[in-house]
Amino acid sequence: MSTPANGADGPTDVDAIKADIDATREQLGRTVDELTHRLDVPARTKESALRARDTAVETYRESPPLTIAGLLAVAGLVTGIVVLRKRRAARATRRRKR
C-alpha cells in the first residue's frame, strides 16, 4: 500500500476512494436534510402542536376524571391569579386618586 503524494492520510485504491466519496455524499445529504428540518419552523411548530394534542388525548383516555380535575385546578388557579391582579390594580388606582 503506497501513500499519497500530497501526504494526506486516506485510501489510495480507486474503489476505496469512490466508496469514501459516496459515504461522504450520503453524510452530507443527511446533514442538509437535518438542517432543512431545523430551519422549517412552521412545520416544527405544527409537529409540536400535534404531539401535544396526542399526549393530551392519550392522557385523557388513560384517566378521564383525573385529567378533568387537573384542568379544573389549572383553570381555578388562573382565575385566582386574574382576580388578585385586578384587586391589586384597583387598590393601586384608589391610592393614586387620594
List the helices and strands and how they pair.
Blueprint: H1 14-39, H2 41-62, H3 64-97
Can you give the helix content as a percent range? over 70%
Biggest pleated-sheet summary: none
Q: Give the averaged pLDDT, no decimals.
A: 87
Total beta strands: 0
Please sum up the structure shown.
With 98 residues, the chain is mainly alpha-helical. It has helices spanning 14-39, 41-62, 64-97. Helix content is 84%, strand content 0%.
What does this structure look like?
By secondary structure, this protein is mostly helical. The chain folds into 2 domains: 13-62; 64-98. It contains 3 helices and no strands. Helix 2 packs across helix 3 (64-97). The longest helix is centred in the last third of the chain and has 34 residues, at 64-97. The chain is elongated. 0% of the residues are buried. The mean pLDDT is 87.
Question: Which descriptors apply to this entry?
Answer:
single chain, 2 domains, elongated, 3 helices, 0% strand, mainly alpha, 98 residues
